[in-house]
Amino acid sequence: MTFIRSFLFIALATGMAMHQQACAQQDTLNHIVRGVLITGNKITKEHIVLRELVIHEGDTLSNANLRALIEKCQNNLINTRLFHSVQVVPAFISRDEVIIRVELEERWYTWPIPIFEIAETNFNTWWLTKDFSRTNYGFYIAKQNFRGRRETLYLKLRFGYSKHYALRYQAPSVNKAQNLGFGLSVNYFQNREITVGTEGNKRIFYSPEDKGNSREEFVAETNLTFRRGIYNSHTGRVKYTKALVDDTVTTNYPGYFFLNRNYSEFITLSYTFKHDKRDVQAYPLHGHLLEATAIKNGLGFVQNNDLDLLITYFKFKKYWQLGARTFMASSVRLKATVNDPPYYNQEGMGYTDFVRGYEFYVIDGQHYGLFRSNFKYQLVKPTKINMGKMRNNFFSTFQFAFYLNAFFDIGYVVDDLYEDVNPLSNGNMNGYGIGLDFVTIYDYIVRMEVTRNALGETGFFLHFRQPI
């Protein structure tokens, strides 16, 4: 028996060694890419697709490299948000020659869509009162992938609580090398009610007694983007802002605008560097993102305005897989402000950034730090359901996935201006809980979370964007 066991062990070890050697030889086998064949791009121009590929005709790749680069090609094309699905597959025409097939399913690009929005910091704050007078309505017409060149043409007409009229054009590439992008936008806002301060970390609202507006704003912006390679981009923006408020605002709430005027007019210059290697930007599971922004409000070009404000942002996000269905994610966000801003130009936590569990609070401040972490379990893998033959093929499939998650956040806001009436500033905030994420077609996300914060408060919250 000992001899048989020894023989079987030696045979098994030899077989495993031969298998590993065969796999290693297979992984190092080189293939020459003889061409790239793109199908399914009925609207999208071929050069837009080729721009996102990291495999090109004439490349010589090993099996291992080929597999890795195919996955990157698929993720890059998905991240353009032009396609429902992308399949990049190798078609071997001989032992050492391959053609890369790119099979695309395009999205619907023209959206004449009605607007119904909650005019609050988040849905949960609005749900406390369910006040439909604090909603926005209207419509926008967005022509995405305009001319098949990934351009966006956008018209917005929004009425209700916060009126907004906008026209925007964005082109990701305007030169032959496809590395220079350009955009411009014009916006006009009218607000019946505005936030003029906070007390007890709750917003203080003002609206005039007559039927007029408390604030009107005109904003025009142009931007230039340089995208080097696939994952790095540099964006410069120049923006002109002119805002006017009711005289009562400056009388009762001094410091709303610089020098306590009833208007603010200034030029903004900003720069953003972005390094983005996430697998799927809409709901990442692998990769990382680094982004840094510097914003200078007030350049001295506008007469009678001495606004001089520098704001910097830093963001880092990391995603990685732990097991077959388990994932981790974490992020760090930092903000710093040079010189004290008027209330109109400052924003702390409670709007874009917040500690989960503090959705009902606004924490004004000039500087802040936020750390978020998530542990995810893939309850339902990404699934595609064929809806059968439909008149419009852009809606013929329905995609969804579910993720169960546990999370922990911690944040800190530094406030030198309003801390006397806002107890949550200049102190640690933390929140933790569990949630369920529903991810579906056109990058829509619904998050249902139960949280508990450092104040001992427990709540159920809904959100409609990715957690990290």
Q: Let me know the average pLDDT.
A: 88
Strand content: over 45%
Strand order of the largest sheet: 5-6-7-8-9-12-13-14-15-16-17-18-19-20-21-22
Total number of helical segments? 5
**Top-tier CATH class of the largest domain:** Mainly Beta
What is the H/E order? HEHEHEEEHEEEEEEEEHEEEEEEEEE
Question: Spans of 5+ residues with little confidence (pLDDT < 50)?
Answer: 1-25
CATH topology of the largest domain: Porin
Number of strands: 22
Q: Shape from CA axes?
A: globular
Q: Please, what is the CATH homologous superfamily of the largest domain?
A: membrane protein fhac: a member of the omp85/tpsb transporter family
Number of domains: 2
Protein structure class: mainly beta
Largest sheet: 16 strands, antiparallel
| Helicity level | 10-25%
Assembly type of the shown chains?
A: single chain
Instruction: Please tell me the CATH architecture of the largest domain by its name.
Output: Beta Barrel
Q: Give the distance, in angstroms, between the N- and C-terminal Cα atoms.
A: 58 Å
Radius of gyration computed on alpha carbons: 27 Å
